Automatic annotation (TrEMBL):
GO terms for molecular function: acid phosphatase activity. It comes from Serinibacter salmoneus. InterPro entries: Metallo-depent_PP-like (IPR029052), PAPs-like (IPR039331). This is Calcineurin-like phosphoesterase family protein. Coiled coil: none annotated. Keywords: Signal. Residues 591-610 are annotated as: Disordered. Transmembrane segments: none annotated. PANTHER family: ACID PHOSPHATASE RELATED, PURPLE ACID PHOSPHATASE.
Length: 610
């Protein structure tokens, strides 16, 4: 397979976003701001030369081609560091720390589209002054004209859909193989639903576009990857999916960048988030910082100053951020979460996307406070007890639909809405699901309870964390069951498993995409780490699922177990609403000629039976 290279200044092919009645958004990325960019739509686009496209991008009319200008926005937090997977000449030296990297997102809203009809389109970016004659893409040319792709507006409500369910890409060895096999096996699709963890560290630009060992996110989802599988049997390229169908993502823990201030690297920043309340307390105690913010927001010196935005940026730099995710994707903004959680109708699917994830920390648990040299999900380091910004705060929740929260109130309203109740398929997607047999279902999904350990004289000698209860089981599952949700789709533990509740709700984790973190079940012979005393070990499961539910057996199981947790296999899943079924496939990447086979097939509730 020959892959046509992108222009040196172009970082991605176009990707489709947020279709609506008669319209769809088209976005792509570049390494500098183009002089002009546009989407070109119409039957004549296939015959365009780069010169034609450049003139159209500058506003000249071309017969048979409709031109829609693209709006450029620079991403505010993308960066690289010495650990970025880039050529040595482009990689910052280690002493430079985190270095901003220029990335521009171009986006156009293509309107006046006919319902039910796909139209050919291309995108063009012109870099620098318009030359004469125009140089074309492929070298250091001025013009980049994409290949021909197709777009369509939102399907009519109630229209049958074929949707790829995927998650946890993270530039893992088998992710390009997974997507390439999925595209070849499933055929035409209408959308991609992705349950989080697209990359590893979200502020590192090269993980999205041009690094990560040949398996960057957009490269893989657009058929431009170049990565050998885990067995070294074949090289895979992913598939050109996002150029043709819209992506609907959820936030996973790897879409959340940690505290940037004072961190030497992107990886260190990613591992150093603190709750928002810690950053707010830091600001309240820092009179100099408050004065600097007040001065920078003085409208007499800067009429465009936005005090609220500047305060928000200060707090985000010192707590955690989903900014890069939010700037890359055009998502519904009608919820209080403003795209971090949302609901959208995709044909006959009403999709509710939740923001339910937390920081991942190690399971180190030292009973003696004096022995604690590092923060973990269970403890703070002994030398950081009086420095809240150096503490990990346990596996704290970034956000979740907890009773009393804005997200929970919004979810209750959405589940009761006419749009949800009238949908042919009621679906919820979130990164961390309520049931699972992977390693990451522990500790229980709940805000950690901080226990301060003191001597008899009151001196603080240690801090540990307990995890009583599970807020997904307590506050989320009853809502989903009462609303008769058809399908709950999650990721996070890098395996495939399915649960079906007595009420008929299917809970599917299909995240054995590029690798696995293992299964912990009676059939696996493996157990999770359980903390020793003084921690409450009864709160932690060595094996099995929260809530005690047993996984359903796949209809054609792999190796006689009710899950797939394999670094030699990939699993991908299709939601086919026309057939009202969910079908999963498995393939062995050790075989260069591998052919995916059916792993699991189950039916959704028949129409009209609720």
């Amino acid at each position: 397979m020959t892959i046509t290279p992108l222009h040196p200044l172009v970082l991605s092919d176009p990707y489709l976003q947020l279709p609506g009645p008669g319209q769809v958004h088209v976005a792509w990325a570049s390494a500098t701001r183009p002089a002009a960019s546009a989407v070109l739509v119409g039957d004549a686009v296939a015959g365009l030369t780069a010169q034609d496209a450049a003139r159209a991008g500058h506003g000249e009319e071309i017969p048979g081609v409709r031109m829609i200008p693209a709006h450029p926005t620079r991403l505010t937090r993308t960066a690289e560091d010495a650990d970025s997977d880039l050529p040595a000449a482009l990689r910052p030296p280690r002493e430079a720390g985190i270095v901003p990297r220029e990335v521009w997102r171009l986006v156009a809203r293509v309107a006046d589209l006919a319902a039910g009809r796909r139209e050919p389109y291309r995108v063009v970016s012109v870099f620098g002054p318009q030359p004469d004659p125009l140089e074309v893409t492929g070298g250091a040319g001025h013009v980049w004209l994409s290949d021909v792709f197709t777009l369509a507006p939102a399907p009519a409500p109630g229209a049958a859909q074929r949707i790829l369910l995927t998650s946890d890409h993270q530039a893992e060895p088998n992710t390009p193989a997974n997507l390439q096999l999925a595209a070849a096996t499933l055929g035409p699709l209408d959308a991609v639903f992705l349950a989080g963890d697209m990359v590893n560290r979200p502020d590192r630009a090269s993980e999205w576009f041009d690094g990560a060992g040949g398996a960057a996110f957009f490269a893989t989802m657009q058929g431009r990857a170049d990565r050998a599988d885990s067995a070294g049997a074949s090289t895979w390229h992913g598939a050109p999916l996002l150029q043709h169908v819209p992506l609907f993502p959820a936030i996973g823990n790897h879409e959340v960048q940690g505290r940037r201030i004072g961190q030497p690297s992107i990886a260190a920043s990613f591992a150093a988030p603190v709750p928002r309340a810690v950053a707010e307390a830091e600001l309240a105690a820092d009179a100099e910082a408050r004065a600097a913010l007040a001065a920078s927001a003085d409208p007499t010196s800067d009429p465009t100053a936005d005090p609220a935005a500047q305060r928000e940026a200060w707090l985000r730099d010192r707590s955690f951020s989903t900014t890069t995710y939010e700037e890359l994707f055009t998502l519904p903004s009608t919820s209080p979460g403003a795209g971090r959680y949302y609901a959208v109708t995709v044909g006959e699917v009403r999709l509710v996307v939740l923001y339910a994830t937390r920081i991942w920390r190690s399971a180190v648990a030292d009973p003696d406070p004096a022995d604690r040299v590092a923060a973990s999900r269970f403890q703070e380091a002994a030398d950081a007890l009086d420095e809240p910004t150096r503490q990990g705060q346990g596996d704290f929740l970034f956000d979740a639909p907890i009773a009393g929260s804005a997200q929970h109130a919004w979810l209750r309203q959405e589940l009761a809405s006419e749009a949800f109740r009238a949908a042919g398929v009621r679906m919820v997607m979130l990164h961390e699901g309520p049931y699972g047999i992977g390693t990451n279902v522990m500790p229980p999904f709940t805000p950690p309870v901080r226990i301060e350990e003191r001597e008899q004289d009151g001196a603080l000698v240690g801090i540990r964390y307990e995890y009583p209860g599970n807020v997904l089981l307590r506050d989320l599952v009853p809502l989903l069951e009462e609303a008769e949700v058809d399908l709950v789709f999650s990721g996070h533990s890098h395996l495939f498993t399915r649960f079906t509740s007595p009420g008929g709700v299917h809970y599917v984790e299909t995240s054995n995409t590029g690798n696995t973190h293992g299964a912990f079940h009676a059939t696996s012979g493996r157990e999770r780490e359980v903390p020793p005393a003084p921690w409450r070990s009864a709160d932690h499961l060595a094996s099995g699922s929260p809530g005690g539910m047993e996984p359903a057996w796949p209809t054609a199981p792999l190796e006689g177990v009710p899950y797939v947790a394999s670094n030699d296999h990939v699993v991908f899943t299709l939601l086919d609403t026309g057939a009202r079924e969910v079908v999963s496939y498995v393939a062995d990447v050790r075989d260069p000629g591998t052919t995916p086979r059916e792993l699991d097939r189950f039916a959704l509730r028949p129409r009209g039976t609720r």
